[in-house]
């Protein structure tokens, strides 16, 4: 299949198609993706710029109908779309179908938000003067999305942008053109006016800087690596352009002596290794107090080594492949680094299975300290490390000792410690007796420190990024 750009309502093929490779079976080529250049990006921005005023003037009912159509079709096709996702990105099939369903739910939620928009009418401090506070769309929003959630993350950016009256230019990750194309195809039949949504496929190093630099693009929403995000923040700051960044994580899962061992192991196994650990919310640091440490490590090791790794589309598979050769090499490098620093590595080897793919055994690194690279840098793979601590106070200090601050978890049966941790964990999201990964679509998503910058994504808080506030005064 050829994956094309959607520009001004028309499907545009360009450049030498980039092969879309199944990481579970590298002989399986899903299709070839267009490689847009500056010309196609210029056309997409021009189309969005021309269409933005009309969509900004659309009624709440028009917006609801469009988003509700998109959400309904995604949910009706969740098995098909989830299969495409798992084949393209490598999540297990249940995870792929679950992500597709979440994308549909996101569009449904923001369809409702189209009808729930609010404002304020206030009395002025001056006699005879009325005040109205309303929200207006920001205009054209450029979106740069990652490969690890190839339909959910585009959905949670596109849906609020459209709900609040903006036009969109989407640049998805090179590795996952299929999901982006499928989503764009649904959007193209939703009744949305031509040019309001545009899809541009191509090299991020070429498309990204041009998208950010164009003065007709009023805001940038980015999810990806910290170095790239910092560069985008600097570029947008120099242009006084609104920017929203979701970046990395080195998320702690604290396990206290009083934790239910089964609950702690389940939460840690899920958070560290499901989705092949390729989640910014993954539990990559397991901070465990002395009394439960040995029992926890023994049971987690038993559960981890029993995980069934294989082709993402096969029944019973619990962990799929790493997304590509480059990411796999990075994961394996970090395993070697951890061992060279004195960590004891369990698992972590490359796997040669019947089908040629990017397979890796999940890795647990014990006997680590929080100053080791394995605990400072994001691996973005099925690799978790264990840090032994004395008590809750030390656990909290270690959990917060990181440049990241996305998600933080604790397993405990103590209401006192759970309450204190929720208040004092330096993260945007806190989980108690739950995996650090796995969030709802109707509440805010985002972190602190190096993990996030700008307004929160998802839920009702999304309105903060995709609109600007206008205050109008009327005299008698």
Tell me about this structure.
It holds the Pfam family Aldedh. Its EC number is 1.2.1.5. GO terms for molecular function: aldehyde dehydrogenase [NAD(P)+] activity; succinate-semialdehyde dehydrogenase (NAD+) activity. InterPro entries: Ald_DH/histidinol_DH, Ald_DH_C, Ald_DH_CS_CYS, Ald_DH_CS_GLU, Ald_DH_N, Aldehyde_DH_dom, Aldehyde_DH_Superfamily. The protein is α/β, with parallel strands linked by helices and 476 residues long. It folds into 2 domains: 2-247 and 442-475, Aldehyde Dehydrogenase, Chain A, domain 1, CATH 3.40.605.10; 251-432, Aldehyde Dehydrogenase, Chain A, domain 2 (3-Layer(aba) Sandwich). 40% of the residues lie in helices and 22% in strands. It has 15 helices and 23 strands. It has helices spanning 38-56, 60-76, 78-89, 93-115, 152-163, 177-188, 204-213, 226-238, 261-273, 290-305, 325-340, 373-376, 392-400, 415-424, 463-466, and strands spanning 2-3, 5-7, 10-12, 18-21, 29-33, 120-123, 129-137, 140-144, 167-171, 197-199, 219-223, 242-246, 251-255, 283-289, 344-347, 350-351, 359-360, 363-368, 383-389, 407-411, 429-432, 452-453, 467-475. The strands form 6 sheets. It has a 7-stranded mixed beta sheet with strand order 15-18-19-14-13-20-21, sandwiched between helices. Strands 10-9-8-11-12-22 form a 6-stranded mixed beta sheet, with helices on both faces. Helix 8 links the parallel strand 11 and strand 12 (242-246). Helix 2 (60-76) packs antiparallel against helix 4. The termini are far apart.
